[in-house]
Every structure is written in C-alpha cells, then in structure tokens.
Amino acid sequence: MASTCPPQIINTLRAKALKDKLTEIQRNLSRDNIILAIILILLTIGMSLFILAPLFTMLLKSLQSNNGQFIGLSNFSDYFSSTAMWQSLRNTLFIGTIVTSLVSFLAFGFAYSLTRSCMPFKSIFNILGSVPILAPSLLPGISLIYLLGNQGIAKDILMGHSVYGPIGITIGLTFWCFPHALMIIKTSLRTSDARLYEAAQALNTSPIKTFFIVTLPGAKYGLISATIIVFTLVVCDFSVPKVIGGNYNILATDIFKQVVGQQNFSMGAVTSVMLLIPALFAFSADRWVQKKQKGLFDSRSIAYIPQKNIFRDTCCFLFCSIISVAIITIIGMAIYGSLITFWPWNLNISLHNYNFNQFSADGWQPYFNSLKLGFLVAIIGTLTVFIGAYCIEKGRWLGPLRHLLQMLAIIPMAVPGMVLGLGYIFFFNTNYNPLSILYGTLTILVINTVTHYYTVGHMTAITALKQLPAEIEAISASINLPQYKTFFKVTLPVCSPAILEIMVYLFINAMTTTSAVVFLYGTDTMPASVSVLNMDDAGQTGPAAAMAVMILLTAACVKVGHSGIGHLLEIYTQAWRRR
Questions:
Q1: What pLDDT, on a 0 to 100 scale, did the predictor assign at position 302?
Q2: Model-level pTM?
C-alpha cells in the first residue's frame, strides 16, 4: 500500500528549498560579487571606448573624403590604382618575409645553443641575447648610419651598396626583433622529454635525424608562433624604416607621410586598413597555433639534460659569439656615436651631444616626460590589467560579459601601434567628442600606451591567476571571509612576481615606443623616443643617438632593479613552491 507524505513535511521541504534559493540569491548579491560586476562593466566600457571606438572611427574615415563627406570605396579605388601604393605593399611583404626568415633561423640557433648544449658562458649569452629589447627601435637605425652610412667607419663592407634602403631596414629590424623570437623559442625548447632521445639513441638514430624527428617537432609550435609574431612586428614598425629606409617606402612610413607630411587623413586611414589586414591574418594564425598546441611534458616525463659534445658545443659557442658580437657592435656603435663631438669632422670624445638644450628647445624635457609616462603606465596599467584579469578569472557573475572582456583584451595584440594612434586622432581630435580635451595631454599618451600593450600583460596575469586553486575563493566564502581580504592576503603575494613582470614590461615599452604615440603628443608632452625621431629628421644624429642611449640605459637600470626585487619576492612570497 503506497504511503503519502504528510502536508507538514511537504511544507517544510518547500520552505527549506525556498530558504536555500534565497540564500543562493543573497550569496550572488554579496558585496564582493557586486564590486566585481561593477569593475567588469567599467572595464568593458573603457576597453570599448579606447579600442573599438577609435578603430571604428578610422574605418569610417577611410570611407570619407578629407572634408568628411561619405564617398564609399573611392579612397580604396584610388589606393589600388596607385603604382606607388602597390610598391609600398610589395616592399612591406618583401621585408617582412626576409626579416622573419632571418630572425627565425638566428633565434632558433641561439635558443638551441642555450638549451641543448654544454657550451661555456651561457648566462652571459642569455643576457646579451635579450639586450636589444631594452633599446628603442630607432637605435639600430642610428647605429647603422655610424657603421655603414655614407660617412660610416665600415661602409666599404657593403661594396658600393647603400645601407639606406632594404639592407639597412633588414639589419635594423633583425636586431630589434631577435629577442622577441628568442624568448618564445627558448621556452619551447626548454621542455623536452629525455625518454624520446634515449629511444632514438637505442635505435641507433643519427643526431641529424634525431633533430628532425624529435627536437624540431617538439618545438614547432613555438617556432611558428615566433615566426608569426616577428612578421607582425616587422610589417607594423615604422621607426627603423623612417631612420634608415631612405626612399624605400613601406606601409608604416606611408601612413606617417600621408598624415604628417601631406595631411591626407583619408588616405592615411586607407593605408592603416591595409596595414591592419596582414596583422589580423598573423594574429588569427597565432591563435590557431596556440589552440593546436598540446603539452609534451607531463608528470611522467624526464627532463632532458644535454651531455657534453665537443663538436656541437664548439659550433654553438661560435654561433652565439658571432650574434653577440653583432649585438654589442650595434649598441656599442650607438654609444660611441653619442660621445663623438661632431661626426665625422671632430672625433673627440665628449658629452657635447648630451647637452640637449643646444639642439632642441625642449632640452631634457622629453626624457623626463618619458620617465613620467613610464611610471604612470607601469602603475595604472598594472592595476588595470591585473584587476581586469582577476575579475575575468575569479568572478562569478556576468559570464557573457567576462567572455566579452576577454575578447577585448586580446584585440590590441592584432592592432599595429600606428593604426591605433591614427584611430585616436580621428576619435579624440573632434569637436563633438567630449573626450577631446584629452588630446595632446599626457593622459592620452598613458591611455594609448596601456591599451597598445594590454594583451601581453593580460595574458601574463591570467597565467599567474590560473596557478591558484579555485578552491581558495570557495573556502573563503564558506568561512565568510570577504573576497577582497583573500585577494590581498593570498592572491597578491602569490602573483607578485607576475605583477612585477607586468610593471617592468609596461615601463620599458612606454620608454621605447614610438609608433603608438607619434601622432598624439603635445608641445609639453613629447616623449624621448619621438624626440629621437625629430632630432634625426633635423640631421642631428649625435644628439638623437645620445637620447636613444639614455632610453637604453634607463631601461637597463630598471631591468637590473627588477632582477633584484624579483629575487627578494622569490624568497619572501614564493616559499610555498619549495619543498
């Protein structure tokens, strides 16, 4: 005989279910979730305002005349009918292909030597391979003028060919892009399973065949990613071609000439769209590669430790020595050129070129502007990037909005600096925009720089946050500990090395960037990198080299300080990693 549940029990169960539902709603409406939701909404509005709106305005400008009238695709028709524009496009793709191939080969060989050999002085080579990232991209162009220019000390090496053109652009961009590729490829070569090499040795596989069937496949995704990133950097950079390119036009320099030289903003917008296309293709390919990449090193793997091999180690040492000498020569020549009183007529060593008041009405002000810009970008950018990443990774509310913000955070990686800067001109330098008061101020330089370099910092923060177990927030909620206390007591200390890394990354890029801010500075806010460009344009190569060296030395000091502080953080906040 079936038994029925008494009405009192049913009512009790219903009341309990209703109470649980109200408790869940109350939990979702907690102060922590509301605060995270408000931050998410503000960040989404800010990212849309400072990324999507300028890009949309630039695309709209490409469909208008200089007077603001809508003319459809007429600008694109004029662009494609111009022989000079087609030549710039071909030059851009040619330089991109040559430099990418050269950098990929050199960086792979250098990374292989550091990770798969027992050559001496590895730590020194590792430092020298990373030095170019501290220099503004203008520095190699200026150094090449002293080395291989018309009055260069080694101009005969080119056997009558001019460095002002594809030769100089290729050398300068190879120098500047090399450390970017090195970091990626070195990371991919570090994690290898020794069992694969032991199996190859047991099967009497030759070292060359082992390289092609074990080493190269294990590093292929890192190599592909490095290739794509280098290609993007090459086609988007305008500093090296501007200094050493001569009459060899590429898309990035075309944008500068059309906007600054000819005041043809509509055609500048069209060229920006053309520059955006290869960058978007490269970005899409890189995202596809990252999705395909799988971990080849797990808990059962055995770390590969290279064994001594005299022939291999000697070849690796010579290979790294040649590249290191080339890096030292380019940086050393820039420093030497900055100390020459008046090249090539007065070769006396002095600090004459560092007296910037003699060469520019701005004097040292651009350098101090860059210091101020760097500190503001480092502080504001790090706070924005890390808090945004925390809201995405640890938030419980507004899932679709978190996914949207994640997508917006990745977009800046695919947008060249000059394209973003030009978009800021069209969006902020208009009377109908209430934010036009920001144009020409230090504030817009900070916003533009943080936006331009947002993606790398965001990915670093997300990676650090993913190391934290999800149970931390759940445990905090179960003991009624506010999430902000967990954030300050657990999250920040554990992620402090990554936060410091983001801060230093943003500071150095704020000091060295040119393309993103070249259209946006005012008379009182000119950064040092733009001052280098202007002094070089005025024929003042010595003072330009001196300012570039000041940027390099500042970035190097910050990097040294980063190493010291990072070591202290490793001791006091990362003890949990050590057994």
A1: 57
A2: 0.81
